[in-house]
Amino acid sequence: MAVETNFELKPGMATREAFGHALVELGRENPNVWAVDADLSKSTYTSLFAKEFPDRFVSCGIAEANMVGVAAGLASCGKIPFAASFSCFVMNKGFEQLRVAVAYPNANVKVVGTHSGISIGEDGPSQMSIEETSLACSLPGFVVLAPADEVAARALIRAAAAYVGPVFIRTGRMKTPVIYAADQRFEIGKAIEVTDGDDVALIANGLMVAEAIRARGILAAEGISARVIDLHTVKPLDRDAIERAAAETGAIVVAEEHLVDAGLGVRVAQVVGETSPCPMEFVGLTGYAESGPSDELLDKYGLRAVNVAAVARKVLGRKKS
Amino acid sequence: MERIENVGELQEIAKRIRRQIIEMIGAAGSGHPGGSLSATEIVTTLFWDVMRHDPANPKWPDRDRVILSKGHAAPVLYAAMADCGYTPVETLNTLRKLGSIYQGHPDRRFIPALEASTGSLGEGLSIAMGMGLAARWDKRPSRVYCILGDGEIQEGQIWEAAMFGAFHKLDNVVAIVDYNRIQLDGFVKDIMEIEPLVAKWQAFGWHAIELDGDSIPALQAAFAEAAAFKGKPTALIAHTIKGKGVSFMENNPKFHGVAPTKEEVALALKELA
Fold it and tell me: What is the widest separation between alpha-carbon atoms in chain A?
């Protein structure tokens, strides 16, 4: 079936690559911006920063716990360190340090997790981070961001650098379609209503925003009007946008490339419950996946527009008329 | 702060700090006297002789920094910082009580002059590395002193940081191992042997100095040697006595993490008079 949207989703770069370019820009503008790396600079694209600013690029070797501590030390001396690694490594192996050396003293450390979700593909579940949104959100004081495309990634990386305090930014390996115009404004904690719609709200982040937009096209062909909301800031949540969506549509679907019971969805559900309760359904992962091509994985594990559309129909069935 | 090099004067200060430690932990009814007492000469020598710091200007960018990575020895740090004028002396005995700035383990939210919040073992040396890097980049004379417990270095992160320090040639960082030979469950050698310690730090690319960590002149000489040594960070393997200065606490694993009773406080203060 042809997907109709108001958008032409053009191919774009991966959000991790957009991060790498944004970091170089920041490095040129601000001598206090540093990159801290654990032997993955070619994968996280901090290699671009390393090439231009070798003296502000800190090689830690394969030692994420120490990497986080080093970043905390740099931050306490006025630097703005971006510590980057695969999401699964920095958030799991560095978690205790993120807790005690970063969150607890509110250190100005930026953590960039790349290769999030199952869309990393062939490397398989040991490298697929499907839990770390929950870990990051559990740290008091942390801002948690999940950009949907290269424009969002660049803008949110810049917003993270300007913000004083700890930030986690979730990026992916897979190339993602471009959703936003180059001049789209992004603000931490402010959701973007990508499209309007009255029957159901599709709330998503990361690569699921593009799938939600495609799902909107599928639903439109059936006469269903879906609002698409990009909740790029997982913490702090835009409570107003969620409440508005709940009150105005009365049915909500949350879609994320993450464990469905530990990420964006449950956080949104808390706000819906506290503000304007309505039926909700969720799209996400229920366990560890497997190796395979990214596109086939997203198909098999139900992270596609058709899945979002199916769940939207289900929630509409529960909606009080 | 004006430096004091006179050993007799420094020993008097150390005695004062010890009395404060006993009183604080006694008043709190819980805490870690053994490892606070074993680190007293280390902390005293750093704060009164070695470090360049200014209690009136705790955020002075060129200051030397100390990180108490073995955060459970907070009382020795609090006593020293209060005595120097960073925090009030008169409230030291609110240690561990609700609303006190003197938290169970060092907490920057309550005392901004602290260089790091610690309490989870193994983390301080990595933070010290970041500070050493920043100081070098900013061309500041600052040196960073990180006090480690001997049991603490069983944590793997210490050795990640040790590799890092040698690789990045951070000769402005000094690690001091308070080698008092006792950890919570008993003697270090019985829990998880850490020897050969000097050889370990050397193998990790550090300049290592073994010394009597209860001797102020030995500490003064070691800190001077560390400052003069270029191209590598320095580790001081400081042999100390757990519970030093109080006869019934010395080398007694019980006083790793148990507060003295009222009677024991009185006895200890008599010994430290």
Answer: 63
Strand ranges across the sheet with A110-114:
A57-59, A33-37, A80-86, A110-114, A167-170, A143-145, A233-235
* Nearest-by-CA chain A residue for B114: A105
Look up the ipTM and state it. Answer: 0.96
In 3-state terms, chain A is what percent helix, strand and coil (to 5)?
45, 20, 35
Q: What mean pLDDT value characterizes chain B? A: 98
The string of pLDDT tens digits covering residues B58-74 is 999 999 999 999 999 99
Q: CA A321 from chain center: how many Å? A: 34
User: A57 φ, ψ to 5°?
Assistant: -110, 120
* CA torsion, ordered B86, B90, B96, B100, to nearest 10 deg: -70
* Nearest residue, CB atoms, B134 vs list A60, A79, A99: A79
Q: For the residues A196-216, what does the mean pLDDT come to?
A: 97
Within this chain, do residues A174 and A199 fall inside the same structural domain, yes or no?
Answer: no
Is the model's pLDDT at B100 over the cut of 80? Answer: yes
d(CA B166, CA B164): 6
Inside any domain, residue A269:
yes
Band of residue A55 on the pLDDT scale cut at 50, 70, 90: very high
What number is the average pLDDT over the span B112-123? 98
Q: Domain holding B166: CATH number?
A: 3.40.50.970
CATH of the domain at A275: 3.40.50.920
- Contact call for residues A114 and A85 (beta carbons, < 8 A): yes
- Find the closest chain B residue to A101 by CA distance: B117
Which structural domain, as residue segments, surrounds residue B186? 7-271
Q: With an 8 Å Cβ cutoff, are B133 and A71 in contact? A: no
User: What CA–CA distances, in Å, run from B262 to A162, A191, B27?
Assistant: 53, 59, 9
pLDDT digits (tens, 9 = 90+) for B18-70: 999 999 999 999 999 999 999 999 999 999 999 999 999 999 999 999 999 99
Same domain, yes or no: A258 and A286: yes
- Model confidence at A28, pLDDT cuts 50, 70, 90, reads very high
Domain that holds residue A131: 10-178
At residue A109, the pLDDT reads: 98
- Supply the residues of A annotated as catalytic: 64
Question: To the nearest whole angstrom, how far is the Cα of A140 from the nearest Cα of chain B?
Answer: 13
Q: Is B108 on the interface with A (CB under 8 A)?
A: yes
**Average pLDDT for A200-221:** 97
* Chain A interface includes B139 (CB < 8 A): no
Query: Which residues of A make CB contacts under 8 Å with B?
Result: 55-56, 58-61, 63, 65-79, 81, 96-97, 99-101, 104-106
In a domain? residue A273: yes
B164 vs A66, A74, A77: nearest CB: A66
CATH number of the domain within which A86 lies: 3.40.50.970
pLDDT at site A208: 98
Residue A70 to residue B107, Cβ atoms within 8 A: no
Q: Which residues pair with A168 in a beta bridge?
A: A111, A144
